[in-house]
Amino acid sequence: MKFRRSERLIDMTNYLLDHPRQLVPLTFFAERYDSAKSSISEDLAIVKETFEQRGIGTLQTVPGAAGGVKFFVKVSEEESKPFVKELCNLIADPERLLPGGYLYLTDILGNPSIVQKAGQIIASAYSDAKIDVVMTVATKGIPLAYAVASQLNAPVVIVRRDSKVTEGPTVSINYVSGSAKRIETMLLSKRSLAQESRVLIVDDFMKAGGTVMGMISLLEEFNAHVAGIAVLVEAEKIHERLVDEYLSLVQLSEVDVKHKKINVKEGNYFRK
Amino acid sequence: MKFRRSERLIDMTNYLLDHPRQLVPLTFFAERYDSAKSSISEDLAIVKETFEQRGIGTLQTVPGAAGGVKFFVKVSEEESKPFVKELCNLIADPERLLPGGYLYLTDILGNPSIVQKAGQIIASAYSDAKIDVVMTVATKGIPLAYAVASQLNAPVVIVRRDSKVTEGPTVSINYVSGSAKRIETMLLSKRSLAQESRVLIVDDFMKAGGTVMGMISLLEEFNAHVAGIAVLVEAEKIHERLVDEYLSLVQLSEVDVKHKKINVKEGNYFRK
Protein backbone atom coordinates (compact mmCIF):
# COMPACT_ATOMS: atom_id res chain seq x y z
CA MET A 1 0.00 0.00 0.00
CA LYS A 2 1.37 3.37 -1.06
CA PHE A 3 1.38 6.31 1.29
CA ARG A 4 0.72 9.86 0.28
CA ARG A 5 3.32 12.47 1.18
CA SER A 6 1.07 14.00 3.83
CA GLU A 7 0.71 10.66 5.61
CA ARG A 8 4.45 10.03 5.39
CA LEU A 9 5.24 13.42 6.91
CA ILE A 10 2.90 12.85 9.86
CA ASP A 11 4.17 9.35 10.61
CA MET A 12 7.82 10.34 10.09
CA THR A 13 7.44 13.26 12.47
CA ASN A 14 6.03 10.94 15.13
CA TYR A 15 8.72 8.33 14.50
CA LEU A 16 11.63 10.78 14.61
CA LEU A 17 10.37 12.53 17.76
CA ASP A 18 10.07 9.08 19.36
CA HIS A 19 13.65 8.09 18.40
CA PRO A 20 15.94 11.05 19.15
CA ARG A 21 19.67 10.64 18.46
CA GLN A 22 19.04 7.29 16.75
CA LEU A 23 20.26 6.70 13.23
CA VAL A 24 17.27 5.86 11.06
CA PRO A 25 18.33 4.49 7.64
CA LEU A 26 16.57 5.97 4.62
CA THR A 27 15.75 2.42 3.56
CA PHE A 28 13.75 2.00 6.78
CA PHE A 29 11.40 4.80 5.77
CA ALA A 30 11.45 3.71 2.11
CA GLU A 31 10.21 0.25 3.10
CA ARG A 32 7.82 1.54 5.75
CA TYR A 33 6.03 3.66 3.15
CA ASP A 34 6.79 1.62 0.05
CA SER A 35 8.28 4.76 -1.50
CA ALA A 36 11.40 5.67 -3.45
CA LYS A 37 14.42 6.86 -1.48
CA SER A 38 14.36 10.10 -3.46
CA SER A 39 10.84 10.85 -2.17
CA ILE A 40 11.96 10.05 1.38
CA SER A 41 14.86 12.47 1.00
CA GLU A 42 12.49 15.19 -0.09
CA ASP A 43 10.18 14.42 2.85
CA LEU A 44 13.08 14.64 5.27
CA ALA A 45 14.15 18.00 3.87
CA ILE A 46 10.66 19.35 4.59
CA VAL A 47 10.66 17.86 8.10
CA LYS A 48 14.10 19.32 8.81
CA GLU A 49 13.10 22.77 7.61
CA THR A 50 9.90 22.77 9.66
CA PHE A 51 11.59 21.42 12.81
CA GLU A 52 14.20 24.18 12.58
CA GLN A 53 11.71 26.92 11.80
CA ARG A 54 9.40 25.95 14.65
CA GLY A 55 12.20 25.56 17.19
CA ILE A 56 11.62 21.82 17.66
CA GLY A 57 15.04 20.48 16.71
CA THR A 58 17.05 19.49 13.72
CA LEU A 59 17.80 16.51 11.50
CA GLN A 60 21.33 15.47 10.74
CA THR A 61 21.91 13.50 7.57
CA VAL A 62 24.60 10.83 7.69
CA PRO A 63 25.67 10.07 4.09
CA GLY A 64 26.79 6.73 2.68
CA ALA A 65 25.56 3.17 2.57
CA ALA A 66 25.30 2.93 6.37
CA GLY A 67 23.83 6.40 6.48
CA GLY A 68 20.46 7.79 7.39
CA VAL A 69 19.01 10.54 9.47
CA LYS A 70 19.12 11.50 13.15
CA PHE A 71 16.81 13.79 15.07
CA PHE A 72 18.29 16.11 17.68
CA VAL A 73 16.12 18.15 20.01
CA LYS A 74 16.97 21.87 19.89
CA VAL A 75 14.36 24.00 21.57
CA SER A 76 14.81 27.54 20.25
CA GLU A 77 15.31 30.47 22.61
CA GLU A 78 12.03 31.82 21.26
CA GLU A 79 10.32 28.75 22.77
CA SER A 80 12.43 28.27 25.89
CA LYS A 81 12.62 31.89 27.14
CA PRO A 82 8.85 32.28 27.75
CA PHE A 83 8.71 28.82 29.35
CA VAL A 84 11.49 29.66 31.82
CA LYS A 85 9.87 33.02 32.55
CA GLU A 86 6.60 31.29 33.39
CA LEU A 87 8.46 28.77 35.53
CA CYS A 88 10.05 31.65 37.46
CA ASN A 89 6.61 33.15 38.10
CA LEU A 90 5.31 29.80 39.32
CA ILE A 91 8.25 29.40 41.68
CA ALA A 92 8.13 32.97 43.00
CA ASP A 93 5.08 32.22 45.18
CA PRO A 94 6.27 32.87 48.78
CA GLU A 95 3.96 30.08 50.02
CA ARG A 96 6.59 27.72 48.63
CA LEU A 97 9.14 28.66 51.26
CA LEU A 98 9.98 25.85 53.65
CA PRO A 99 12.28 25.81 56.71
CA GLY A 100 15.99 25.99 55.82
CA GLY A 101 15.55 27.95 52.61
CA TYR A 102 14.13 24.94 50.77
CA LEU A 103 11.23 25.29 48.40
CA TYR A 104 8.07 23.27 47.94
CA LEU A 105 8.38 22.22 44.29
CA THR A 106 6.42 18.97 44.46
CA ASP A 107 3.53 20.27 42.37
CA ILE A 108 5.84 21.63 39.67
CA LEU A 109 7.94 18.45 39.59
CA GLY A 110 4.69 16.46 39.53
CA ASN A 111 3.51 18.16 36.34
CA PRO A 112 4.68 15.99 33.43
CA SER A 113 4.27 18.69 30.81
CA ILE A 114 6.48 21.13 32.73
CA VAL A 115 9.04 18.42 33.45
CA GLN A 116 9.07 17.27 29.84
CA LYS A 117 9.55 20.76 28.44
CA ALA A 118 12.33 21.45 30.98
CA GLY A 119 13.93 18.18 29.93
CA GLN A 120 13.79 19.12 26.26
CA ILE A 121 15.38 22.49 27.01
CA ILE A 122 18.19 21.00 29.10
CA ALA A 123 18.78 18.25 26.53
CA SER A 124 19.05 20.90 23.80
CA ALA A 125 22.22 22.19 25.51
CA TYR A 126 23.79 18.71 25.36
CA SER A 127 22.41 17.50 22.05
CA ASP A 128 25.87 17.59 20.42
CA ALA A 129 27.70 16.16 23.45
CA LYS A 130 28.65 12.54 23.93
CA ILE A 131 26.47 11.40 26.86
CA ASP A 132 26.34 7.69 27.75
CA VAL A 133 24.25 7.94 30.88
CA VAL A 134 22.11 10.43 32.80
CA MET A 135 22.54 10.20 36.56
CA THR A 136 20.35 11.56 39.33
CA VAL A 137 19.69 10.96 43.00
CA ALA A 138 16.41 9.65 44.38
CA THR A 139 13.73 10.91 44.57
CA LYS A 140 12.93 14.36 43.27
CA GLY A 141 15.42 14.50 40.43
CA ILE A 142 14.12 11.34 38.79
CA PRO A 143 11.38 12.75 36.51
CA LEU A 144 13.61 15.52 35.14
CA ALA A 145 16.44 13.05 34.59
CA TYR A 146 14.13 10.83 32.50
CA ALA A 147 12.84 13.80 30.54
CA VAL A 148 16.43 14.75 29.65
CA ALA A 149 17.55 11.18 29.02
CA SER A 150 14.69 10.34 26.70
CA GLN A 151 15.78 13.21 24.43
CA LEU A 152 19.43 12.15 24.58
CA ASN A 153 18.67 8.47 23.99
CA ALA A 154 20.61 7.58 27.13
CA PRO A 155 19.75 5.34 30.08
CA VAL A 156 19.14 6.76 33.56
CA VAL A 157 20.93 5.56 36.67
CA ILE A 158 19.55 6.48 40.06
CA VAL A 159 21.75 6.99 43.07
CA ARG A 160 20.03 6.07 46.33
CA ARG A 161 20.51 6.94 49.96
CA ASP A 162 19.53 3.47 51.17
CA SER A 163 20.13 -0.03 49.88
CA LYS A 164 17.35 -2.17 48.39
CA VAL A 165 17.33 -5.90 47.68
CA THR A 166 16.14 -5.26 44.13
CA GLU A 167 19.33 -3.37 43.29
CA GLY A 168 21.73 -6.25 43.79
CA PRO A 169 25.28 -5.43 45.05
CA THR A 170 26.06 -1.70 45.44
CA VAL A 171 29.01 0.68 45.74
CA SER A 172 28.61 3.35 48.41
CA ILE A 173 30.44 6.54 49.37
CA ASN A 174 30.19 9.10 52.14
CA TYR A 175 30.00 12.79 51.38
CA VAL A 176 29.54 16.06 53.22
CA SER A 177 26.27 17.79 52.47
CA GLY A 178 27.32 21.30 51.44
CA SER A 179 24.79 23.36 53.33
CA ALA A 180 24.13 21.32 56.47
CA LYS A 181 27.73 20.05 56.75
CA ARG A 182 26.49 16.61 57.70
CA ILE A 183 28.07 13.34 56.63
CA GLU A 184 25.72 11.43 54.35
CA THR A 185 25.85 8.21 52.35
CA MET A 186 24.87 7.51 48.78
CA LEU A 187 25.07 4.33 46.81
CA LEU A 188 24.67 2.97 43.33
CA SER A 189 23.97 -0.51 42.04
CA LYS A 190 27.20 -2.09 40.82
CA ARG A 191 25.58 -3.38 37.65
CA SER A 192 24.15 -0.06 36.64
CA LEU A 193 27.16 1.90 35.37
CA ALA A 194 29.90 0.79 32.96
CA GLN A 195 33.53 1.91 33.35
CA GLU A 196 34.53 5.06 31.43
CA SER A 197 30.91 6.15 30.94
CA ARG A 198 30.34 9.81 30.17
CA VAL A 199 27.70 10.95 32.63
CA LEU A 200 25.34 13.92 32.67
CA ILE A 201 24.26 14.69 36.25
CA VAL A 202 20.71 16.05 36.52
CA ASP A 203 18.92 17.21 39.66
CA ASP A 204 15.92 19.30 40.59
CA PHE A 205 17.55 21.63 43.10
CA MET A 206 21.09 22.64 44.02
CA LYS A 207 22.10 24.55 47.11
CA ALA A 208 25.83 24.49 47.88
CA GLY A 209 26.27 21.49 45.60
CA GLY A 210 27.11 18.82 48.20
CA THR A 211 24.84 16.23 46.64
CA VAL A 212 26.31 16.84 43.20
CA MET A 213 29.83 16.55 44.68
CA GLY A 214 28.76 13.24 46.21
CA MET A 215 27.64 11.98 42.81
CA ILE A 216 30.97 13.07 41.32
CA SER A 217 32.86 11.06 43.98
CA LEU A 218 30.66 8.09 43.23
CA LEU A 219 31.49 8.42 39.52
CA GLU A 220 35.18 8.22 40.39
CA GLU A 221 34.57 4.83 42.03
CA PHE A 222 33.22 3.65 38.68
CA ASN A 223 36.00 5.32 36.66
CA ALA A 224 33.29 7.31 34.95
CA HIS A 225 33.45 10.92 33.77
CA VAL A 226 31.29 13.99 34.35
CA ALA A 227 30.01 15.17 30.97
CA GLY A 228 27.83 17.91 32.45
CA ILE A 229 25.71 19.04 35.39
CA ALA A 230 22.24 20.49 34.99
CA VAL A 231 19.64 21.53 37.56
CA LEU A 232 16.16 22.96 37.33
CA VAL A 233 16.61 25.42 40.20
CA GLU A 234 19.74 26.70 41.90
CA ALA A 235 19.47 28.31 45.31
CA GLU A 236 20.58 31.87 45.90
CA LYS A 237 24.23 32.78 45.41
CA ILE A 238 26.14 30.61 47.81
CA HIS A 239 29.54 31.94 48.89
CA GLU A 240 31.19 28.58 48.79
CA ARG A 241 29.57 26.87 45.83
CA LEU A 242 31.27 23.48 45.59
CA VAL A 243 30.50 23.09 41.90
CA ASP A 244 31.45 25.65 39.25
CA GLU A 245 30.41 24.25 35.92
CA TYR A 246 26.69 23.67 35.75
CA LEU A 247 23.57 24.72 33.94
CA SER A 248 20.45 26.02 35.70
CA LEU A 249 17.09 27.06 34.30
CA VAL A 250 16.01 29.07 37.33
CA GLN A 251 17.95 30.90 40.04
CA LEU A 252 16.69 31.99 43.45
CA SER A 253 17.95 35.12 45.15
CA GLU A 254 17.06 37.07 48.28
CA VAL A 255 15.30 34.17 49.93
CA ASP A 256 13.99 35.45 53.25
CA VAL A 257 12.09 32.74 55.07
CA LYS A 258 11.21 35.01 57.99
CA HIS A 259 9.55 37.69 55.88
CA LYS A 260 8.30 35.21 53.25
CA LYS A 261 10.12 36.99 50.48
CA ILE A 262 11.71 35.30 47.51
CA ASN A 263 13.22 36.57 44.30
CA VAL A 264 13.35 34.32 41.27
CA LYS A 265 15.17 34.90 38.00
CA GLU A 266 16.41 33.06 34.94
CA GLY A 267 19.26 30.64 35.62
CA ASN A 268 22.57 30.69 33.74
CA TYR A 269 21.15 28.59 30.85
CA PHE A 270 20.82 31.48 28.43
CA ARG A 271 24.19 32.98 29.39
CA LYS A 272 26.19 29.85 28.58
CA MET B 1 3.86 34.32 6.79
CA LYS B 2 1.79 31.56 5.21
CA PHE B 3 2.53 27.93 5.90
CA ARG B 4 2.27 25.18 3.36
CA ARG B 5 0.13 22.18 4.22
CA SER B 6 3.18 19.93 4.64
CA GLU B 7 4.66 22.29 7.23
CA ARG B 8 1.36 22.57 9.04
CA LEU B 9 1.00 18.79 9.24
CA ILE B 10 4.48 18.35 10.71
CA ASP B 11 4.10 21.09 13.30
CA MET B 12 0.54 20.01 14.17
CA THR B 13 1.69 16.45 14.71
CA ASN B 14 4.40 17.62 17.08
CA TYR B 15 2.02 19.97 18.88
CA LEU B 16 -0.74 17.40 19.34
CA LEU B 17 1.65 14.67 20.53
CA ASP B 18 3.02 17.19 23.04
CA HIS B 19 -0.45 18.10 24.35
CA PRO B 20 -2.44 14.87 24.81
CA ARG B 21 -5.99 15.15 26.17
CA GLN B 22 -5.88 18.94 25.89
CA LEU B 23 -8.52 20.75 23.92
CA VAL B 24 -6.81 22.72 21.15
CA PRO B 25 -9.19 25.23 19.53
CA LEU B 26 -9.20 25.30 15.74
CA THR B 27 -8.61 29.03 15.96
CA PHE B 28 -5.31 28.33 17.72
CA PHE B 29 -4.02 26.44 14.70
CA ALA B 30 -5.65 28.90 12.29
CA GLU B 31 -3.75 31.77 13.89
CA ARG B 32 -0.54 29.80 14.34
CA TYR B 33 -0.41 29.10 10.60
CA ASP B 34 -2.31 32.13 9.33
CA SER B 35 -4.68 29.74 7.55
CA ALA B 36 -8.41 29.38 7.10
CA LYS B 37 -10.27 27.19 9.59
CA SER B 38 -11.49 25.05 6.68
CA SER B 39 -7.87 24.22 5.75
CA ILE B 40 -7.11 23.40 9.38
CA SER B 41 -10.11 21.04 9.46
CA GLU B 42 -8.81 19.26 6.38
CA ASP B 43 -5.33 19.01 7.93
CA LEU B 44 -6.77 17.52 11.11
CA ALA B 45 -8.73 14.94 9.13
CA ILE B 46 -5.47 13.77 7.52
CA VAL B 47 -3.67 13.71 10.90
CA LYS B 48 -6.52 11.74 12.48
CA GLU B 49 -6.56 9.19 9.67
CA THR B 50 -2.81 8.68 9.79
CA PHE B 51 -2.68 8.47 13.61
CA GLU B 52 -5.37 5.79 13.52
CA GLN B 53 -3.84 3.88 10.64
CA ARG B 54 -0.36 3.84 12.20
CA GLY B 55 -1.61 2.88 15.67
CA ILE B 56 -0.48 6.14 17.27
CA GLY B 57 -3.79 7.38 18.64
CA THR B 58 -6.85 9.29 17.64
CA LEU B 59 -8.22 12.81 17.46
CA GLN B 60 -11.56 13.73 18.93
CA THR B 61 -13.35 16.73 17.50
CA VAL B 62 -15.35 18.82 19.92
CA PRO B 63 -17.87 20.87 17.91
CA GLY B 64 -19.17 24.34 18.65
CA ALA B 65 -17.76 27.76 19.43
CA ALA B 66 -15.75 26.48 22.40
CA GLY B 67 -14.76 23.42 20.38
CA GLY B 68 -11.53 22.14 18.97
CA VAL B 69 -9.58 18.93 18.82
CA LYS B 70 -8.10 16.57 21.39
CA PHE B 71 -5.39 13.94 20.89
CA PHE B 72 -5.73 10.61 22.71
CA VAL B 73 -2.96 8.03 22.71
CA LYS B 74 -4.17 4.63 21.49
CA VAL B 75 -1.32 2.28 20.74
CA SER B 76 -2.70 -0.44 18.49
CA GLU B 77 -2.33 -4.10 19.39
CA GLU B 78 -0.23 -4.45 16.25
CA GLU B 79 2.28 -2.10 17.88
CA SER B 80 1.95 -3.15 21.51
CA LYS B 81 1.99 -6.95 21.14
CA PRO B 82 5.53 -7.16 19.70
CA PHE B 83 6.76 -4.65 22.29
CA VAL B 84 5.39 -6.71 25.19
CA LYS B 85 6.80 -9.87 23.66
CA GLU B 86 10.25 -8.30 23.48
CA LEU B 87 9.87 -7.07 27.06
CA CYS B 88 9.06 -10.64 28.16
CA ASN B 89 12.23 -11.89 26.46
CA LEU B 90 14.29 -9.21 28.16
CA ILE B 91 12.87 -10.10 31.56
CA ALA B 92 13.21 -13.87 31.10
CA ASP B 93 16.98 -13.74 31.69
CA PRO B 94 17.56 -15.91 34.81
CA GLU B 95 20.44 -13.63 35.85
CA ARG B 96 17.75 -11.18 36.92
CA LEU B 97 16.61 -13.37 39.81
CA LEU B 98 17.29 -11.88 43.22
CA PRO B 99 16.70 -13.32 46.71
CA GLY B 100 13.01 -13.51 47.67
CA GLY B 101 11.70 -13.94 44.15
CA TYR B 102 12.40 -10.31 43.25
CA LEU B 103 13.80 -9.38 39.89
CA TYR B 104 16.59 -7.04 38.89
CA LEU B 105 14.73 -4.64 36.57
CA THR B 106 16.87 -1.54 37.11
CA ASP B 107 18.30 -1.57 33.59
CA ILE B 108 14.87 -1.96 31.99
CA LEU B 109 13.32 0.73 34.18
CA GLY B 110 16.37 2.89 33.41
CA ASN B 111 15.73 2.77 29.67
CA PRO B 112 13.58 5.79 28.81
CA SER B 113 12.42 4.43 25.45
CA ILE B 114 11.12 1.20 27.03
CA VAL B 115 9.49 3.11 29.87
CA GLN B 116 7.91 5.61 27.51
CA LYS B 117 6.46 2.96 25.23
CA ALA B 118 5.13 1.00 28.24
CA GLY B 119 3.58 4.23 29.48
CA GLN B 120 1.90 4.87 26.13
CA ILE B 121 0.49 1.36 26.11
CA ILE B 122 -0.85 1.57 29.67
CA ALA B 123 -2.26 5.05 29.03
CA SER B 124 -4.07 3.70 25.94
CA ALA B 125 -6.18 1.53 28.23
CA TYR B 126 -7.27 4.58 30.26
CA SER B 127 -7.46 7.15 27.50
CA ASP B 128 -11.26 7.39 27.81
CA ALA B 129 -11.30 7.26 31.61
CA LYS B 130 -11.53 10.25 33.88
CA ILE B 131 -8.15 10.33 35.64
CA ASP B 132 -7.22 13.35 37.76
CA VAL B 133 -3.95 12.07 39.17
CA VAL B 134 -1.44 9.26 38.68
CA MET B 135 -0.03 7.92 41.94
CA THR B 136 3.02 5.78 42.54
CA VAL B 137 5.38 4.93 45.37
CA ALA B 138 9.06 5.91 45.46
CA THR B 139 11.37 4.95 43.84
CA LYS B 140 11.10 2.42 41.05
CA GLY B 141 7.57 3.19 39.92
CA ILE B 142 8.28 6.87 39.30
CA PRO B 143 9.48 6.78 35.66
CA LEU B 144 6.58 4.59 34.50
CA ALA B 145 4.09 6.77 36.40
CA TYR B 146 5.39 9.86 34.56
CA ALA B 147 5.29 8.09 31.22
CA VAL B 148 1.62 7.20 31.81
CA ALA B 149 0.73 10.58 33.28
CA SER B 150 2.25 12.58 30.46
CA GLN B 151 -0.06 10.78 28.02
CA LEU B 152 -3.07 11.31 30.26
CA ASN B 153 -2.31 14.98 30.92
CA ALA B 154 -2.48 14.30 34.66
CA PRO B 155 -0.11 15.23 37.48
CA VAL B 156 1.91 12.60 39.37
CA VAL B 157 1.91 12.26 43.14
CA ILE B 158 4.61 10.20 44.78
CA VAL B 159 4.02 8.29 47.98
CA ARG B 160 7.14 7.99 50.13
CA ARG B 161 8.31 5.71 52.88
CA ASP B 162 10.09 8.49 54.79
CA SER B 163 9.31 12.13 55.45
CA LYS B 164 11.30 14.97 53.87
CA VAL B 165 11.38 18.63 54.79
CA THR B 166 10.72 19.59 51.17
CA GLU B 167 7.32 17.91 51.23
CA GLY B 168 5.76 20.05 53.92
CA PRO B 169 3.15 18.42 56.21
CA THR B 170 2.24 14.81 55.37
CA VAL B 171 -0.46 12.21 56.00
CA SER B 172 0.85 8.74 56.86
CA ILE B 173 -0.67 5.28 57.19
CA ASN B 174 0.57 1.85 58.22
CA TYR B 175 -0.01 -1.17 56.04
CA VAL B 176 0.89 -4.85 55.96
CA SER B 177 3.25 -5.79 53.15
CA GLY B 178 1.48 -8.65 51.41
CA SER B 179 4.38 -11.02 50.86
CA ALA B 180 6.63 -10.38 53.85
CA LYS B 181 3.71 -9.70 56.25
CA ARG B 182 5.61 -6.82 57.83
CA ILE B 183 4.07 -3.58 59.07
CA GLU B 184 5.28 -0.68 56.94
CA THR B 185 4.59 3.04 56.74
CA MET B 186 3.86 5.20 53.74
CA LEU B 187 3.12 8.87 53.56
CA LEU B 188 2.00 11.54 51.17
CA SER B 189 2.38 15.29 51.25
CA LYS B 190 -0.87 16.90 52.43
CA ARG B 191 -0.78 19.51 49.69
CA SER B 192 -0.34 17.03 46.90
CA LEU B 193 -3.77 15.45 46.50
CA ALA B 194 -7.18 17.16 46.33
CA GLN B 195 -10.31 15.59 47.87
CA GLU B 196 -12.41 13.41 45.56
CA SER B 197 -9.59 12.99 43.05
CA ARG B 198 -9.83 10.03 40.69
CA VAL B 199 -6.49 8.28 40.94
CA LEU B 200 -4.72 5.81 38.68
CA ILE B 201 -2.18 3.78 40.67
CA VAL B 202 0.92 2.81 38.69
CA ASP B 203 3.84 0.69 39.86
CA ASP B 204 6.70 -1.28 38.35
CA PHE B 205 6.18 -4.60 40.14
CA MET B 206 3.38 -6.24 42.10
CA LYS B 207 3.71 -9.34 44.24
CA ALA B 208 0.80 -9.96 46.60
CA GLY B 209 -0.31 -6.36 46.22
CA GLY B 210 0.44 -5.07 49.73
CA THR B 211 1.99 -1.86 48.50
CA VAL B 212 -0.97 -1.18 46.24
CA MET B 213 -3.34 -1.87 49.15
CA GLY B 214 -1.32 0.62 51.19
CA MET B 215 -1.80 3.23 48.50
CA ILE B 216 -5.54 2.51 48.45
CA SER B 217 -5.76 3.08 52.24
CA LEU B 218 -3.85 6.30 51.81
CA LEU B 219 -6.34 7.41 49.15
CA GLU B 220 -9.16 6.86 51.63
CA GLU B 221 -7.50 9.33 54.01
CA PHE B 222 -7.73 11.92 51.24
CA ASN B 223 -11.31 10.93 50.26
CA ALA B 224 -9.94 10.08 46.84
CA HIS B 225 -11.01 7.25 44.53
CA VAL B 226 -9.17 4.46 42.74
CA ALA B 227 -9.75 4.87 39.01
CA GLY B 228 -7.44 2.03 38.05
CA ILE B 229 -4.32 0.03 38.92
CA ALA B 230 -1.59 -0.77 36.40
CA VAL B 231 1.77 -2.47 36.80
CA LEU B 232 4.56 -3.31 34.42
CA VAL B 233 5.25 -6.76 35.89
CA GLU B 234 3.14 -8.95 38.16
CA ALA B 235 4.80 -11.76 40.09
CA GLU B 236 3.70 -15.35 39.61
CA LYS B 237 0.15 -16.35 40.56
CA ILE B 238 -0.18 -15.55 44.22
CA HIS B 239 -2.83 -17.52 46.11
CA GLU B 240 -3.93 -14.60 48.18
CA ARG B 241 -3.70 -11.69 45.79
CA LEU B 242 -4.92 -8.68 47.75
CA VAL B 243 -5.93 -6.77 44.65
CA ASP B 244 -8.27 -8.10 41.98
CA GLU B 245 -8.77 -5.41 39.42
CA TYR B 246 -5.49 -4.41 37.80
CA LEU B 247 -3.72 -4.32 34.47
CA SER B 248 -0.29 -5.89 33.89
CA LEU B 249 1.91 -5.93 30.80
CA VAL B 250 4.05 -8.86 31.88
CA GLN B 251 3.41 -11.82 34.18
CA LEU B 252 5.99 -14.05 35.85
CA SER B 253 5.37 -17.72 36.50
CA GLU B 254 7.39 -20.67 37.77
CA VAL B 255 10.02 -18.50 39.41
CA ASP B 256 12.59 -20.88 40.86
CA VAL B 257 15.38 -18.94 42.53
CA LYS B 258 17.30 -22.08 43.48
CA HIS B 259 17.49 -23.48 39.96
CA LYS B 260 17.62 -20.05 38.33
CA LYS B 261 14.54 -20.72 36.28
CA ILE B 262 11.93 -18.18 35.35
CA ASN B 263 8.96 -18.19 33.05
CA VAL B 264 7.67 -14.95 31.63
CA LYS B 265 4.49 -14.34 29.69
CA GLU B 266 2.17 -11.57 28.58
CA GLY B 267 0.24 -9.94 31.40
CA ASN B 268 -3.55 -9.56 31.45
CA TYR B 269 -3.42 -6.36 29.35
CA PHE B 270 -4.57 -7.97 26.13
CA ARG B 271 -7.26 -10.05 27.86
CA LYS B 272 -9.08 -7.10 29.43
Keywords:
homodimer, Arc Repressor Mutant, subunit A, Rossmann fold, two-stranded antiparallel sheet, about 35% helix, transcription (chains A, B), PRTase_dom (chains A, B)
Q: How would you describe this structure to a colleague?
A:
The structure is a homodimer of 272-residue chains. By secondary structure, chain A is an alpha/beta fold. Chain A folds into two domains: 5-73, Orthogonal Bundle (Arc Repressor Mutant, subunit A); 77-271, 3-Layer(aba) Sandwich (Rossmann fold). Helices cover 35% and strands 26% of the residues of chain A. Chain A has eight helices and ten strands. In chain A, the strands form three sheets. Chain A has a six-stranded mixed β-sheet with strand order 4-3-7-8-9-10, with helices on both faces. In chain A, a hairpin with a 4-residue loop joins β9 (247-256) and β10 (261-266). Chain A starts with a helix and ends in a 6-residue tail after the last strand. The model of chain A has no long low-confidence stretch (mean pLDDT 92).
Please give a quick description of this structure.
The structure is a homodimer of 272-residue chains. By secondary structure, chain A is of the alpha/beta class.
